[in-house]
Amino acid sequence: MHTKSDYVKPSKNRNLQALRFIFFSVVLQGCSIAFITYANIGTTPISSTNFVLSLHTPYTLGDTTFIFNILLILLQLMLILMGEEKLKDHYVKLIIQIPVCVVFSFMIDLSTDLLTLVLPENVTYALSWGLVIFGTFLLALAVSLSVTANVAMVPGEYFIKLFHPLVHKTFSFVKTFFDIFLVSTAVLLSLFLTNFGAVEGVREGTLYAALLTGPTVHLLLPLCAKLNPLLNGTSFEGVEDNKNVKEDEK
Q1: Which single residue of 98, 122, 194, 234 has CA 20 to 30 Å from 55?
Q2: Phi and psi of 210, rounded to 5°?
């Protein structure tokens, strides 16, 4: 029979483990953006404007994404200072977003460079859809891991978290509006920069990523939740032992 001393206590390093989860999820997010964008049938809503700017400037998609995210962090700071929130309640999560931005932007460019080495510049339409489907799954997995870790958010998500109470709307409503705003901006910007010759970065792949990421996250979250023992510094065997203890005590 097990005794109480057999319990596996949660580790005090949960935050460190959670940060590892976050940065791993950010690596996956960067890779997913590269896969979807390389397909050349549209990119994700959050990356659409950044992608258009990268096509018409010397900057890469990773560069424009980094600049955009830093601007979002500054907007977050402005919202906190203007509102009733206290900066001390947010400064850690604000600071964490900076290395998150660096890793995210770096992985977008690195993954894109690696894809150019193994895939032709002009991929077939079937392969394009394969890249979009795989990239969307990868993005959903990354988001699920981030939610499971529950220690930090990417700038776009944290901006919405701070903004939606100010307009008295739900997070999902503001998130949808924000995505529509970015896609609309990308369309208008690309039309302007091409003298109304083409719409860049927004196509069927954009619609697929927008519609399928959320439901896929919903499916993956229960699976990722099973990784919580790793966050708590507890082995899966330890979890089973704890269950056996409870059964023995009945």
Answers
A1: 98
A2: -65, -40
pLDDT in tens, 161-188: 889 888 899 888 998 899 999 999 999 9
Residue matched to tokens 């010397």: 58
Extract the residue ranges of the chain whose pLDDT is less than 50. Answer: 1-10, 235-250
Nearest-angstrom CA–CA distance, 143 and 216: 10
Taking only the tens place, the pLDDT of each residue in 62-88 is 999 999 999 999 999 999 988 777 888
Beta carbons within 8 Å of 149's beta carbon, 6+ residues apart: 18, 19, 21, 22, 25, 231
Residue closest to 143 by CA, chosen among 30, 13, 50, 10? 30
Q: Phi and psi (nearest 5°) for 149?
A: -65, -40
The stretches of 119-203 forming alpha helices (DSSP H) are: 125-149, 155-163, 171-193
Q: Compute the distance between CA of residue 230 and CA of residue 242 in angstroms, rounded to an integer.
A: 15
Give CA 14 to chain center in angstroms: 21
Residue with tokens 């659409």: 48
Residue where the block lists tokens 């399928």: 212
CA distance 131 to 115: 11
